[in-house]
Amino acid sequence: MRFPVASSAPVPARRGAPRDANGLAAHVWPEGAHRDAQGRLVVGGVDATTLAERFGTPLYVVDERVARRRAARTRAAFESAAASIGTSATVYYAGKAFLSTAIARWMRDEGLAIDVCTGGELAVALAAGVEPARIGFHGNNKSVREIDRAVEAGVGTIILDSEIEVGRVADAAARAGRVQRVRLRVNSGVHASTHEFLATAHEDQKFGVALGDAVRVGRAIRSHDSLEFLGLHCHIGSQIFDAAGFAESAERLLAAHAELAAVAPVPELNLGGGFGIAYTEADDPRPIEVIAEGIAAAVAEACGRHAVPVPRLAFEPGRSIIGPAGITLYTVGTVKPVPIEGGWRHYVSVDGGMSDNLRTALYGADYTVRLAARTSDERPSLVRVAGKHCESGDIVVDEDWLPHDVGPGDLLAVAATGAYCWSLASNYNHVPRPPVVAVADGRARVIVRGETEADLLARDAGLDDHDDDADGVTA
Ligand code: LLP
Description:
By secondary structure, this protein is α/β, with parallel strands linked by helices. It folds into two domains: 34-63 and 324-451, Beta Barrel (Lyase, Ornithine Decarboxylase, Chain A, domain 1); 85-317, TIM Barrel, CATH 3.20.20.10.
């Protein structure tokens, strides 16, 4: 299909036309992704055409080697930064980014602990065979049932998110006859995202206790025989590109930490996750080693100032480990050029959408899209990749450039979809969720089965209701 030729006037795109609309920027695509002699995108040694033929589209593809390498590299970065200031570090993989039993095992095998934030995530981690002692359990409103289950399972730490939860977890531990290790989540007043952080006196958000209450609540925790207080926790945001916000937050937390340490040792400090990744060529996150060293230096300095021993450190990255390991494949159904000021925008509609990637609609996230089964020498056109849902905000890639001849039947790949895409997926418009395929060493295997229409109907209790006289309420 040929689009009307755009005028030569500049198109008002946030992102300028790329030098090569077939190019795979190394920091955006999974490490090692390349095009084969036929121009097909190859990830984990498997080409996109083969993946689409075998498993259909939309399809989540995760490069197992990349995920494992990123996990191992992150652990090494924090361990060596911690060692350089005379302490140790534990890296928890934040399962909220993307958790299945296979992924939990990859992380466990690479020496990471696992952070879960609901009973459901806990169930997946336990089903994967993760050692309960290597699990940290988060959540701002854990149910008593979830707490009981976590305590009974023997999870290593529960992160207390509120004053009310102190008593709840203490009671659960007492009921189970255990001493539960806990951390206290604190609002450091530091918000961070991408390049900037903002420091406020009070965080206007639901998570954690205010910094000014940390010492008092820490003491309350210590008053319970069934709790063992490990230290403070803080998570300042997500998709953060450098160490400055973490350093500021560590500095603030260490003041409260030092007050608590004056009474009894506080062995740990957990600074959460949030390390950023490249979604587009313009994104330039610092290497994780540089971030780890920056945080460690700030911790050491603050500990010196407050005259407290350097605590063990803990971190909880999710996105930075799994995000860049994933891509999503789609098939183009329709294309439509729309005149906009200064040129044309080409709506390219694919067979998925906000049900498999909500981030664009929810956060205005940016993504990168490329032809996956071929290259083209046609000049680049500004495209908006839209989904198939009944909603105009159903956009997968708001703005990128594809060769001008993109058309029905083309296979597209969207980069860096490994984090918070599958986890945020829905069945909106009764669209079944796509499968997840892991690729490694030229082989592909399903790690999460795709849903079918039978799955969609499986929980629909109306099918069992053959009594037309029933008014819908039965005992
Ligand atoms: N630890 C805690 C306590 C968290 O709340 C989070 C993320 C993490 C660790 C992991 O953060 P990460 O390293 O993945 O940035 N749905 C949003 C992100 C929400 C993050 C919530 N908490 C998105 O798609 O951008």
